[in-house]
Design a protein that fits this description.
The protein is α+β, with helices and mostly antiparallel strands. The chain is built from 2 helices and 5 strands, in the order E-H-E-E-E-E-H. The strands form 2 sheets. Strands 1-3-2 form a 3-stranded antiparallel beta sheet, with helices on one face. Strands 4-5 form a two-stranded antiparallel sheet. Strand 4 and strand 5 form a beta hairpin.
């Protein structure tokens, strides 16, 4: 399974990228296939990839589309329909 981590600032403050990077580093063993971090305003998420299926090998998370950011350890079969 991949790893997921994140921070949400309920007080309206900004999330510092270093906070999420520290969480990713602490769990690096969960992501032998790579890690990525996304920070925007009061939200920061990290993904630690472990590709267990051939379909997941080319995926990159967090997936960002405008203001929507998705990070998950999940299987979504109709990704192309949903992203359209």
């Amino acid at each position: 399974m991949s790893g997921v981590c994140g921070v949400v600032r309920a007080d309206g403050g900004e999330v510092e990228r270093s906070w999420v990077e520290a969480m990713v580093e602490a769990a690096r063993w969960r992501g032998p296939d790579g890690t990525r971090v996304h920070v925007a305003g009061g939200v920061g998420v990290g993904h630690l990839a472990r590709h267990v299926m051939p379909e997941s090998a080319g995926e990159e998370q967090p997936w960002v589309s405008g203001e929507l950011v998705v990070v998950a350890d999940a299987r979504i079969d109709n990704r192309s329909e949903l992203s359209a």
